Amino acid sequence: MVDTESALIRTTVANAIGLIALNNPPVNALGAVARQGLADAVAALNAASEVQVIAIYGEGKALSAGADIREFGKPLVAPRLSDVLDQIEASLKPVVIVLHGTTLGGGLELALACHARVGLPGAHVGLPEVTLGLLPGAGGTQRLPRLIAFDKAIDMISSGRQVAVEEALDLGLLDTIGEGPPHQAALSAAKAALNGSLMLRRTGDIAIKPDSATIAAAIERLSSKRPLLAAPIKAIQAISHSGEPIVEGIKTERRLFGELMDNPDRQGLIHAFNAERVVRRIPEAAATPREMKTAAVIGGGTMGVGIATALLQAGLRVTLIEMAAERAEMAKVAVAKNFDEAIKRGKSTAEARDKLLLGLAVTTDLRDVATLDLVIEAVFEDIATKTELFSKLDNICKSGAVLGTNTSYLDVNLIAAATSRPQDVIGLHFFSPAHLMRLLEVVVADRTAPEVVATALALSGRMKKVAVRSGVCDGFIGNRILAHYRKMADYMLLDGAAFEQIDHALEDFGFAMGPFAVADLAGLDIGWATRKRKAPTRPAEERYVAIADRICEHGWFGRKSGRGYYLYDDPKIRRPNPDALAIVKAERAAAGVTLRRFTDQDIVARYMTAMISEAARVVAEGVAMRPIDVDAVFLFGYGFPRHLGGPLNYADRIGAAALVERIEAFAKEDRYYWQVPDLLRQLAKTKRGFADLNQR
Ligand code: 3HC
Predict the structure, then answer these.
(1) What is the rounded CA–CA span in Å between residue 496 and residue 489?
(2) 64: CA distance to ligand 1 center in Å?
(3) What pLDDT shows up at residue 228?
(4) Is the separation of the CB atoms in 680 and 662 below 8 Å?
(5) 444 and 406 assigned to the same domain
(6) Is 106 in the pocket of ligand 1 (CB under 6 A)?
């Protein structure tokens, strides 16, 4: 008898079947103890004379999410997953496996090394290693192309795409679809293996000839991508060795995997993966959320329409309120259009759209919000308008309703104070387009109740968004930091860098779009309104660049009016607007600046140092709970290059001492703008990084 119970792997034997259960909640990650347990279990079952077949399955929500990400970057603890899987493939007794839930990375590689694979309905599988800056490092690059069409293997591995069980069966990745709970399905699979009804084979024995044309085309396609990331290209290089004997291919895979493990992109991408999860850890997470079934969105502009779309998709019934009936109807059409676009992208169906639209009502009567669980206002960004609206809502809304404001800068404490129930008021700052952008800043005012914060968190989860807790300040986490570093882009423009050069430099660095192209996209009138609002409190020592104001004075607000910094007559090419160039020239002359040259590196250094400086202040003031919260805001709301892991993760690559030195050097040009944040100085002095503050 070889029944064993280790912490993470459970083995039982009955009726000639050796059953191995992975039991490592929450996701059956294959860390060192699990790997050793698996190796021992397979060895023990091979040695047990009463066992004729081995079947593996996972307890909990999935077979396995793969290697334990927390081990990366630390010294490897034996045994290696790839050695354990080679041992499983070589097993003299047949090994079958059941895949359920979302089985990824090393979890799928484990399945590929078994002699037959049974998927359960609802399962999804994939090799997402490239999204973490790695490649499948436990035989995946060698075994997947042996099982499925070569181009499909290249696609799955280089994109990290997950496939549903039906597609996996069609591809040949699975042998069959089973039924019942995983342990039952594993017993059935083992019986099928014994009676010959499940085909058994060693994947490594299958001979294939990699198609060099497909490899070359994939490498060319990936090489033209920006930012240029090493992982997908190295993954394809590894796949190109899959025509060799598997031991040789695996040697190459291991070498390339090791190279990627040492590449800083891997750290940045895993930091980004963690950021999405760590931000959920906030003090209010323990409170019980209020039930949210119905919501009102006040304001049917782009933002209101996007928020209504997101809420409908999350399963709420939504009432959209506009001032005039015609505008309310237009908003309804715009929501339907958002759903149509989702259908075009293959993300939804006409049936789903029609069902969701049944949940949408439009009205012009504010009293219709009286019975609703949640109200989100997305009206004009003006404190008087918002406080007036909230005082009306206070009179209308039912007790216990959550009152959310989508303000992007204004003081949520003031808005809350306009009601008799500040505990129910919260900032819910969506990013445009609100149904697509993943970030939601949850702005917690002084008197917001913990369960209202927990409700926002739960709602964000339903909308599949990343909620980041922010304190109250002008612009919260994201727009406050943006307002600071955006000035730096303007200063560089005034001092001699062309706006096209600034955009290109930052796009080459990894941003999806440079700051001037973004301003044109968002609408130059938005920044103009903010600058006018802040004009009375602008410190006298602060440099002011009026180029954008001059452009706006002509009614050129960017893309929506056909011209801004750039011209938009041909949507495919971005051409500088000659009138904007003339304005730049005139403003430089008016300011009497001595023009200077900026290299692309100078541009990136100044821009990023400005961003990091303000981010450090936001952390020091407690507006953001941790540096990683700032990183999440920029990764999920501002197109920050994911492989750099966010501004404060990137800051640690430069190092606090080097940043202090940089700021002191820049301060020789502008003492007011360039001030060393206390937190940065402290980190430099104590030789720590922002990462150390994430441990709090
Ligand atoms: N290792 C360690 N911890 C993991 C993990 C992993 N592979 N996958 C998830 N976790 C942790 C999460 O960090 C989270 O921790 P927390 O509760 O402390 O925040 C917890 O498990 C639950 O995860 P989620 O909140 O993400 O749960 P979901 O149900 O929403 O999603 C999932 C589950 C789809 C498996 C998702 O977690 C995921 O995509 N995980 C990453 C999978 C992956 O990338 N695997 C490849 C790893 S690399 C590899 O295998 C290398 C190999 O080729 C050698």
Answers:
(1) 11
(2) 9
(3) 85
(4) no
(5) yes
(6) yes
Find the 101 Cα to ligand 1 centroid distance in Å: 12
Residue to mutate, 8, 24, 27, 694, ligand 1, most ligand atoms under 8 Å from C-beta: 27
Please compute, for residue 98, the number of CA atoms within 13 A of its CA located in the half-sphere on the CB side: 35
Under DSSP, the state recorded for 398 is P
- Any idea which residues carry the catalytic annotation? 109, 129
| Residue 274 maps to a domain | no
Whether 239 is covered by a domain: the verdict is yes
Residues 184 and 308 in one domain: no
Is 268 part of a structural domain of the chain?
A: no
Check if 68 has its Cβ closer than 6 Å to any atom of ligand 1.
yes
Binding site membership of 104 for ligand 1 (Cβ less than 6 Å): yes
Same domain assignment for residues 466 and 494:
no
Q: Are strands 439-443 and 466-470 parallel, antiparallel or unpaired?
A: parallel
Identify the CATH number of the domain in which residue 617 sits.
1.10.1040.50
Structural domain including 689 reads 479-622+625-695
Amino acid identity, position 85: L
Beta bridge partners, 618, equal none
Is any ligand 1 atom within 6 A of the Cβ of residue 129?
A: yes
Angstrom distances, CA of residue 85 to CA of 81, 92, 176: 6, 13, 21
Side-chain-side CA neighbours of residue 631 (13 Å): 31
Q: How many domains does the chain have?
A: 3
Q: What is the pLDDT of residues 247-261, one digit of tens each?
A: 999 999 999 999 999
Same domain as 232, residue 315: no
CATH number at residue 462: 3.40.50.720
Say yes or no: 129 and 257 in one domain: yes
pLDDT of residue 6: 62
pLDDT digits (tens, 9 = 90+) for 100-147: 999 999 999 999 999 999 999 999 999 999 999 999 999 999 999 999
Q: Is the CB of 67 under 6 A from ligand 1?
A: yes
Residue 272 lies in a domain: no
Q: What is the pLDDT of residues 484-535, one digit of tens each?
A: 999 999 999 999 999 999 999 999 999 989 999 999 988 899 889 888 988 9
Pocket test for ligand 1, best of 22, 24, 61, 69 (most atoms within 8 A of CB): 69
Count CB-CB contacts under 10 A for residue 236: 25
- The region of weakest confidence among 203-207, 426-430, 433-437, 518-522 is 518-522
Of 459, 474, 489, which residue is a domain's last? 474
609 and 540 both lie in a single domain: yes
